[in-house]
Amino acid sequence: MNYDWSWSIFGQRSLDGVHTFLESILIGTGWTLALALCAWIFALGLGLLFGIGRTVPNKALRLLSGIYVEFFRGIPLLVQMFLWYFVMPEVIPSQLGNAVKGLPAPWAQFLPALACLSLYQGAHVTEIVRSGVQSVARGQKNAAVAMGFSFAQVYRYVILPQAFRLVVPPLTSQMMSTVKSSSVAMTIGLLELTGAARSMQEFSFHVFEAFSAATLIYLVLNVTVVQSVRRLDRLHH
Questions:
Q1: What pLDDT shows up at residue 237?
Q2: Of 56, 85, 142, 145, which has the fewest beta carbons less than 10 angstroms from its beta carbon?
Q3: pLDDT tens-digit series, residues 19-65
């Protein structure tokens, strides 16, 4: 294969006529970070809420949490992304739907992508939290109850601190998955990292340079996530 490599392409003007291709890639990286970080914060909150809900004695809470998990884990992320972007504005009250559709780019794409990714990843975090809570020895819960702890205190002081230490590794993997899954937002027009790389490839025809840069940046982002979590874990211990 005779391919004409040209790394100088990153210094040329991109499709918008304002930024270079390198600047466009870096802007896309910023949107990837913003989307992944915000989605992870919401996903962690949802995962804690429904993960605990799957382990409590209340049958209604367990049922609600189970429905949430099965629904959002059972539908492919790409399909959910299309539902949030194309379908949801049509089924919610018309005034709100029109407001969403009238948002300027990239917010019109960012907000549906954020809702989609948060709920999707939240369902996976739910199962991680549930498994962590259920892995704590039942005897410790019984001992806390015997000491006079309330139900909330048992979870706050006994179960959750131990469960969190157990779920750090799978949560790290899920956070990396959130960064990578953010690339699906490209399909609804958000020029995050993958979208910026694809735009560069389509405009300049330098496909290998564009996606080599995207690959390297994704690798750096995920290695940074892993190292940051490991450092926090060491500080905690």
A1: 60
A2: 142
A3: 899 999 999 999 999 999 999 999 999 999 999 999 999 999 999 99
- pLDDT at res. 115: 97
Structure tokens at 41: 């914060």
Token pair listed for 223: 């290695």
Is residue 13 classed as helix, strand or coil in its secondary structure?
Answer: strand
Cα separation, 204 vs 13, in Å, equals 10
The confidence score (pLDDT) of residue 52 equals 94
Q: 45: part of which helix (H) or strand (E)?
A: helix 21-53
At 143, the pLDDT band (50, 70, 90 cuts) reads confident
Task: Please state, as a whole number, how many other Cβ atoms lie within 10 Å of the Cβ of residue 5.
Answer: 10
First to last CA, the chain: 52
Tell me which residue of 211, 221, 217 sits closest to 177, measured CA to CA. 221
Whether the pLDDT of residue 192 is over 80: the answer is: yes
Measured torsion, CA atoms of residues 48, 49, 54, 55, in degrees rounded to the nearest 10:
70
User: Measuring CA to CA, which residue among 52, 74, 76 is closest to residue 64?
Assistant: 52
Give the pair of three-digit tokens for residue 237: 């211990």
CA pair distance 62, 108, nearest whole angstrom: 34
Rounded-to-integer distance, Cα 92 and Cα 107, Å:
18
d(CA 194, CA 216): 12
pTM: 0.92
Write out the two tokens for 230.
């490991």
Best CA proximity match to 42, nearest among 132, 122, 141: 122
Query: Which of 211, 174, 205, 224 lies closest to 28 in space, CA to CA?
Result: 211
